[in-house]
Amino acid sequence: MELFLLDIGNTHTSYGLMKDDKIQYCKSCVTADIDKLSFPENIPVAAATVVPKAKDTLKNRDVFWVDYRVNTGIDLSLVDASTLGADRIANLAALSVTAKLPAIIVDCGTAVTLESLDSKSVFRGGQIAPGRFLLRKSLNRYTAQLPFYPIDNFEANTFGWTTEDAIRLGTDYGLVGAVKEFILKTKEELGVDECDVFVTGGDSGILMKNIKNLQPVVQAFTLIGVAEIWKLNN
Question: Is residue 80 flagged as an active site residue?
Answer without folding.
Answer: no
